């Protein structure tokens, strides 16, 4: 059994003996987020950055004491407002195509989550979240009026587990859930012999034709477990639950983004879009059934609403017609386990930003521009430069940039000059700012498609980039204003509610209520 993430160990250990319990009371207050000031810009007709636009996006100036680099390479990290608007239009067309036809690059997956939660949902539910880094298991008690309690444990996933046979991966999940439920029964949190409804959060592209079924389209976030793609992951997990005699019944399969949408609306009804900006990236929103042509044959009321899991990390995959890729992005793509796929994700997600910066630094090393006379083998290891380092570099408050000294000294045994540290921080800002501006393009595409701009809406956002990367939210807001002008201020992001735990439990509750009422029971 893997140790819970709250433990300092990552090797095998006994199941957790303690849980964390949280209580939450619904509030209608919405935090007012600051908006970045819109600045004028200039661009060429084709959307490529002009000289003025390069100044606007602050392509790195090169003082004599800084490393000498090809600024043309770095200018490709810049995205002008006009180029952003072009990306938004292409994004909209891609979203609409995914709603019209099955098996598109951006699949626009119907989730069979019908409408918004009422806030009156009650009962005890289990939630399991198979994320990119951790497995999380939760017991959620919904008490109505938007209130809930949650007890949870986390288990670290090893890189080996992500690559081993898919059924073994689900067996590990079942083993962890068994240990969790045994402890919950022992603590009197629910009764022996009781079978609890379970919401399964599986945040990887799946094709669904009903809410308790999902065939994995492709692994993302570095997973590659064989014998899983093309199979029903719910059925695989059910086998694991039966193997370990777990007192649970899977009633809903959802992704963390859909759960985030539902949980955030449960707390703040102004929320109409949810986004994840973390190890991976994704978005979900509520679509009118009449605007989902590919499910017209199901006979669902066209005025009904259904949550759509966009899986937008695949935008511009294979053809690479719309996103401005640098040679470093192309190197990452070609060396990845899914070349050509997840093009949008590879430009904006936390899994790749550190690697982008590392590749730029490695080119400077090869050119004899930095770290002269030093052994740089550690930084030449792929994915050794964590995206968290970019966050630290951007937030370093010291004149001498002491945090950056610590990163290069401690992790890579490299000494840096002040000029190099200033330059590396400027590079980090380029990479981080591009990710935020491209993220704004995705949000803008949904806002434009659904007509939310005039009345405005809240966007529930979650993930390590949004929550921890300094200035990420402000840069997204700045990007929205560059796309929409002053009306872009009507679109406000806020920290989302727990989608994979609370959201999954609410989806399970909504599904149980719907099926008990005989509303589309086969879906």
UniProtKB/TrEMBL annotation:
InterPro entries: ATPase_NBD, Hexokinase, Hexokinase_BS, Hexokinase_C, Hexokinase_N. It comes from Steccherinum ochraceum. GO terms for biological process: glucose metabolic process; glycolytic process; intracellular glucose homeostasis; mannose metabolic process. Residues 272-510 form the Hexokinase C-terminal domain. Pfam families: Hexokinase_1, Hexokinase_2. Residues 42-56 have a biased composition (Basic and acidic residues). This is Phosphotransferase. PROSITE patterns: HEXOKINASE_1, HEXOKINASE_2. Residues 1-27 have a biased composition (Low complexity). Keywords: ATP-binding, Glycolysis, Kinase, Nucleotide-binding, Transferase. Its EC number is 2.7.1.-. It catalyses: D-glucose + ATP = D-glucose 6-phosphate + ADP + H(+); D-fructose + ATP = D-fructose 6-phosphate + ADP + H(+); a D-hexose + ATP = a D-hexose 6-phosphate + ADP + H(+). Residues 1-56 are annotated as: Disordered. Pathway: Carbohydrate metabolism; hexose metabolism; Carbohydrate degradation; glycolysis; D-glyceraldehyde 3-phosphate and glycerone phosphate from D-glucose: step 1/4. Belongs to the hexokinase family. The keyword Nucleotide-binding applies. The keyword Membrane does not apply. One of its GO terms (molecular function) is ATP binding. One of its GO terms (cellular component) is cytosol. Residues 74-266 form the Hexokinase N-terminal domain.
């Amino acid at each position: 059994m893997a140790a819970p993430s709250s433990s300092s160990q990552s090797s095998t250990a006994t199941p957790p003996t303690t849980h964390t319990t949280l209580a939450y009371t619904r509030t209608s207050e919405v935090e007012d987020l600051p908006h970045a000031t819109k600045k004028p810009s200039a661009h060429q007709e084709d959307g490529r950055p002009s000289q003025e636009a390069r100044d606007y996006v602050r392509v790195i100036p090169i003082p004599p004491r800084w490393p000498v680099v090809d600024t043309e390479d770095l200018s490709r990290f810049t995205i002008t407002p006009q180029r952003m608007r072009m990306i938004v239009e292409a994004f909209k067309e891609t979203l609409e195509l995914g709603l019209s036809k099955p098996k598109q690059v951006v699949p626009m997956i119907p989730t069979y989550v019908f409408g918004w939660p009422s806030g009156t949902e009650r009962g005890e539910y289990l939630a399991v979240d198979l994320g990119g880094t951790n497995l999380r298991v939760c017991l959620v008690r919904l008490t109505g009026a938007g209130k809930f309690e949650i007890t949870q444990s986390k288990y670290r996933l090893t890189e080996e587990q992500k690559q081993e046979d898919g059924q073994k991966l689900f067996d590990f999940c079942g083993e962890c859930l068994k240990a969790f439920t045994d402890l919950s029964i022992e603590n009197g949190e629910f009764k022996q012999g009781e079978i609890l409804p379970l919401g399964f959060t599986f945040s990887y592209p799946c094709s669904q034709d009903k809410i308790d079924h999902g065939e994995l389209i492709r692994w993302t976030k570095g997973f590659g477990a064989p014998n899983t793609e093309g199979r029903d992951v719910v059925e695989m997990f059910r086998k694991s639950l039966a193997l370990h005699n777990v007192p649970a019944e899977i009633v809903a399969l959802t992704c963390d983004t859909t759960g985030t949408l539902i949980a955030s609306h449960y707390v703040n009804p102004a929320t109409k879009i949810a986004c994840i900006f973390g190890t991976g990236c994704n978005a979900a929103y509520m679509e009118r059934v009449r605007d989902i042509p590919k499910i017209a044959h199901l006979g669902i009321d066209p005025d009904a609403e259904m949550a759509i899991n966009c899986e937008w990390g695949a935008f511009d995959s294979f053809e690479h017609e719309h996103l401005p890729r640098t040679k470093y992005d192309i190197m990452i793509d070609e060396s990845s386990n899914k070349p050509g796929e997840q093009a949008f994700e590879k430009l904006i997600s936390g899994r790749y930003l550190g690697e982008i910066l590392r590749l730029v630094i490695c080119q400077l090393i090869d050119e004899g521009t930095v770290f002269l006379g030093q052994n740089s083998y550690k930084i030449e290891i792929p994915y050794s430069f964590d995206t968290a380092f970019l966050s630290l570099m951007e937030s370093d408050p010291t004149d001498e940039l002491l945090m950056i000294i610590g990163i290069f000294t401690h992790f890579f045994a490299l000494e840096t000059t002040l000029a190099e540290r200033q330059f590396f921080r400027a590079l980090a800002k380029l990479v981080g700012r591009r990710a935020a501006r491209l993220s704004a393009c995705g949000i803008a595409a949904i806002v434009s498609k659904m007509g939310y701009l005039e009345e405005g809406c809240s966007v529930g956002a979650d993930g390590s980039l949004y929550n921890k990367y300094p200035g990420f939210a402000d840069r997204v807001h700045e990007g929205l204003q560059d796309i929409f002008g002053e009306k872009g201020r009507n679109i406000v992001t806020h920290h989302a509610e727990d989608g994979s735990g609370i959201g999954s439990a609410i989806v399970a509750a909504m599904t149980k209520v719907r099926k008990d009422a005989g509303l589309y029971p086969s879906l």
